[in-house]
Amino acid sequence: MPHLDHRAFVNDCRDERGVGHHTLRAYAQDLRTFARFTEAHRLSDPLSKDDILAYHRHLRDALGAKPATIERRLVTLKSYFAWREDRNSALPSPFADVRISVRIPRRLPRPIDRDTLRAVLHEGEDTFAVRSKSGADDAIAASQNDVTILIIKLLIVTGLRISELTNVKVRDVSHDGSQILVNGKGNRERIVFVPNHKLQEELRHFLEARYAQSGSSAPLFLNTGGRRLRSATFRKRLRALSRRLGIEPHLTPHRFRHSAATLLIEEGIDIRMVQALLGHASLRTTEIYVRVSNHALRRALERADILDVLRN
After folding, report:
1. What is the CATH number of domain 6-87?
2. 240 or 279: whose pLDDT is higher?
3. Average pLDDT over residues 46-70
């Protein structure tokens, strides 16, 4: 059986390429899946093109993996063998002559419609009372619901991934609440802006409270146990909010990200500015939101049906 040096590969991706935690975890999972396959089929080095094709069939037919999962696992494996060959030329990559095409259906993102967004925001009206005097002595103690609504507002206006927002520290937010420094995929830092003045005030007062409680190096958002709020915990809060408001399908952090991008494009913001806001490495990733906006335009035009209007 070939020896797959998972840990060294993952560590190298982290240290040399700055790959994010979630991607590293996916790499390790992908390589473990292949290791189980090689063990079950008693494969040994040097692996061949036929071994890779057999693994592709195994993923597709035996495991019933989705096309996107198959593509990711093969891409991980190809990267691993290229890395291994670079370290030891006596172990050539079995992907040298492999040509596998995995057709992935392009699914449009599902942004939250405007009426639902209004209902959610209405739930949090006047969440934070803006005081005339600022300072640590006036720090506002926010409830769990207050914090949930504040995070929702920030997701809507910044398009942040929830993992990016929950990793923000107090010191990463400007004193006036107008901008946030975030660490995105691949450890790429970027600044996102909070353009709404009322939201800036809410964030500023919340920031003052957190600074007074824990100082500048503490996480901005905490769970009920006083530790950093985790993405999974926030998703549970959104499910509870969805049930309370009767929202189906239920709210998710990524749907707010989709909504942020779609709304900005519908309001005429240049797609490259949206790309920078979302932290997309490729413009192709952002372009899907133009299609979503065009889909919304088509529905609006069908509802208007100008010819029918003229006939009446």
Report:
1. 1.10.150
2. 240
3. 90
Nearest to 149 by CA among 208, 221, 230: 221
Q: What is the DSSP string of 52-104?
A: HHHHHHIIIIIS---HHHHHHHHHHHHHHHHHHHHH-TTS--TTTT-------
* Tokens of residue 162, six digits: 């929830």
Q: Which long-range contacts (CB under 8 A, 24 or more apart) does 10-15 make?
A: 12/83
pLDDT in tens, 292-307: 666 655 665 566 555 5
Q: Taking each helix axis from N to C terminus, what angle separates 253-266 and 283-304, rounded to the nearest 10 degrees?
A: 70
Tokens, residue 175: 């004193």
Going by C-alpha positions, the residue among 24, 93, 23, 37 that lies closest to residue 65 is: 37
The answer to pTM > 0.70 is no
What is the CA angle 17-186-179, rounded to 5?
Answer: 145
Q: What is the 3-class SS of 12-66, one letter each residue? A: HHHHHHCCCHHHHHHHHHHHHHHHHHHHHCCCCCCCCHHHHHHHHHHHHHHCCCC
Task: Determine the average pLDDT of the residues in 147-163.
Answer: 92
Residues forming CATH 1.10.150 domain(s) in the chain? 6-87
8 A C-beta contact, residue 263 and residue 165? no
Can you identify the CATH homologous superfamily of domain 114-302?
Intergrase catalytic core (1.10.443.10)
Residues tagged active-site: 161, 185, 254, 257, 280, 289
**Above 80 in pLDDT, residue 226?**
yes
Whole-number Å distance between alpha carbons of 242 and 248: 7
> What are the residue ranges of CATH 1.10.443.10 in the chain?
114-302
Please tell me the distance from the alpha carbon of residue 69 to that of residue 61, in angstroms, as a whole number.
Answer: 13
Least trusted range by pLDDT, from 171-185, 200-214, 256-270: 256-270
255-269 pLDDT, tens digit per residue, is: 998 888 888 887 777
